[in-house]
């Protein structure tokens, strides 16, 4: 049986109380999409995602370098965390 990869996309939407999530699975992947409004919520949700076996987390560009660092610290060394950048 092939293993399933769990990938999460966290999108920062700077509006109070704007947290929602959805997920779907297909062909060896479990995808979680989360919108949230602040770093504290991102850290809490990252803990939840890690406990659910997330392999990778991709952050929207609104997180900036400090947000990337905060999420990486919570996620730990076994979870890849990346940041979308626009040039």
Radius of gyration: 13 Å
Tally of extended strands?
Answer: 5
Separation of the first and last Cα atoms: 41 Å
According to CATH, what is the class?
Alpha Beta
CATH topology label:
Rossmann fold
Kindly give the count of domains.
1
* Overall CATH architecture: 3-Layer(aba) Sandwich
Layout of secondary structure:
Elements (H helix, E strand, L loop, with lengths): L4 E8 L7 E7 L2 E8 L2 H13 L4 E4 L4 H12 L4 E4 L4
Parallel strand pairs: 1-3, 1-4, 4-5
Antiparallel strand pairs: 2-3
Helix pairs in contact: 1-2
Summary tags:
Rossmann fold; alpha/beta; 2 helices; five-stranded mixed β-sheet; single chain; 87 residues
Structural summary, described in words:
- Helix 1 (39-51) packs parallel to helix 2.
- This protein has helices spanning 39-51, 64-75, and strands spanning 5-12, 20-26, 29-36, 56-59, 80-83.
- It has 2 helices and 5 strands, in the order βββαβαβ.
- It has a single domain, classed as Rossmann fold.
- The chain is of the alpha/beta class and 87 residues long.
- The mean pLDDT is 91.
- A hairpin with a 2-residue loop joins strand 2 and strand 3 (29-36).
- The chain is globular, with a radius of gyration of 13 Å.
- A 5-stranded mixed beta sheet has the order 2-3-1-4-5, covered by helices on one side.
- 29% of the residues lie in helices and 36% in strands.
